[in-house]
Write a structure and sequence with these properties.
The longest helix has 14 residues, at about 25-40. A 5-stranded antiparallel β-sheet has the order 1-2-3-4-5. The mean pLDDT is about 95. The chain has about 170 residues and is an alpha+beta fold. It contains 3 helices and 5 strands; from the N terminus they run H-E-E-E-E-E-H-H.
Length: about 170
């Protein structure tokens, strides 16, 4: 149980769809604890398991003072308006862009005890849920941008001190 290091853009684990969690073992409880601790740091809203190098379908979130998690999440419904929201990512530090997200979502997932939850979310929580499920599907928010916006972000990315260059 610890705060884990965040994998950065360019790491193949971030572009690989995660595997569902089928058994709620001690190792899964440890993973969830690590995700919640890693997410609970001020300024963080969510961390997906693959962002800490674990290719399993789970994420932790920290929104409006509430720290939680979802295992095997699936977005059941997106509704409200599709709006362009400022979005960044711990795996892409220093890079922000307006990203299209729905203002409301209905999501289903499980807790660490296997309990099934359905959550109606709006605002920042809806944005976080969409962002983290994208991670679990092997996407980063850059994949949601139009070609011109993505080009601008990729140029900014090349200027960062952390980006892996060949």
């Amino acid at each position: 149980m610890a705060v884990r290091e965040i994998r950065l853009f360019g790491d193949p684990v971030l572009k690989t769809a995660t595997e569902p969690i089928l058994e709620f073992s001690e190792s899964v409880k440890s993973l969830i604890s690590d995700l919640e601790q890693t997410t609970a740091i001020a300024g963080r809203a969510g961390v997906a398991a693959n962002q800490i190098g674990v290719s399993l379908r789970a994420f932790g979130y920290h929104v409006d003072g509430v720290v939680g998690h979802l295992i095997n999440p699936e977005i059941l419904e997106k509704s409200g308006e599709l709006v362009e929201l400022d979005e960044g990512c711990l795996s892409l530090p220093e890079i922000w862009s307006k990203t299209p997200r729905y203002t409301k979502v209905k999501i289903r997932g499980q807790t660490v005890t296997g309990e099934v939850l359905e959550i109606q979310a709006e605002g920042l929580l809806a944005q976080v849920f969409q962002h983290e499920v994208d991670h679990l599907d092997g996407l980063v928010y850059l994949d949601r941008l139009n070609a011109q916006e993505r080009k601008v972000c990729m140029e900014a990315l090349r200027q960062t001190s952390w980006f892996m260059r060949d």
